[in-house]
Amino acid sequence: MVGLVGSNNLLVFDKLNHASLIDGALMSGAKMTRYLHSDMRSLEKILSQNAEQYPYGIMVVTDGVFSMDGDLANLPELLRLAKKYNALLLIDDAHATGIIGDGGAGTLSHFGITERDNIIVTGTLSKAIGTVGGFITASRKIIDYLRVYARSNMYSTALPQSVCAAAYEVLQDFKKHPEQREALNRNHNYVRSRLNEMGFNTLHSVTPIIPVIIGDEYVLTNLIKDIYDRGIFVNAIFPPVVPPKMCRIRIGVMSCHTQEDCDRLLDVFYETGKKYGII
């Protein structure tokens, strides 16, 4: 068991990790470095160069589902490298909980990974679960440590019982109603495949988060207004959230969307994509 995070530790981050993880890293006081997005060669190079310099421990930190690209972390390879270099692996499953894996259990379940040694999973109750707050799962030793030394836990109040009860019922509902995730998968796969057929760039998304790369900020500003005026709400994503020239629309497909909803969205994207010369 490697040591927990402090000034003698190194945090190794995927370059596209969520901003909240970066804020947590800054609060920890540990040194942080980043590897190229989902590039296991880049990660192993960093780990091999730093393993002896940080005998108190290294933590590899990744999103499970990346919030702006909609792709998945390569957890099997991340876990292999973490074990090879005696590092902790922290997975933020905020965009995976309730969405992928058996019963919505997240990315570890999606990849069929059952071991939990030296693995920390964090997540939120405010997305698929629909309440507020968050959670951490880890070994008893880590959880006991965090109960005392995590400032955001120690100097805060517990979640209301009503919130915890609601979250618990939603988790049970995930298990009872797999048809909801089946509908979600059917919808986002359909929308993505049609967008790709039209000529839109959706990167490597394989989840309900579908990025549509626009590039130019001025074009995106006008395009998003046109789409909204046609009765479709999607998110416009500008720098610094994404790199320059990588401005995008982020589509969030839901299980409750009907075939008619999906086709209407696609018709609007085809019309506006042609109008602005994107396709």
SSE topology:
Blueprint: E1 10-14, H1 19-28, E2 31-35, H2 40-50, E3 58-63, H3 75-84, E4 88-92, H4 107-110, E5 119-124, E6 134-137, H5 140-149, H6 151-154, H7 161-176, H8 178-198, E7 209-215, H9 217-229, E8 235-237, E9 247-252, H10 259-275
Parallel strand pairs: 1-2, 1-3, 3-4, 4-5
Antiparallel strand pairs: 5-6, 7-9, 8-9
Extract low-pLDDT stretches.
none
Number of helices: 10
Secondary-structure content class: alpha/beta
Rg estimate, integer Å:
20 Å
Query: Which percent range fits the helix content?
Result: 40-55%
Taking the alpha carbons of the first and last residues, their distance comes to 52 Å
Largest sheet: 6 strands, mixed
Task: List SSEs in N-to-C order.
Answer: EHEHEHEHEEHHHHEHEEH
The neighbouring-strand order within the major sheet is 2-1-3-4-5-6
Oligomer: single chain
- Beta-strand share of residues: 15-25%
Estimate the global geometry from the Cα principal axes.
Answer: globular
Round the mean pLDDT to the nearest integer and report it: 94
Count the beta strands. Answer: 9
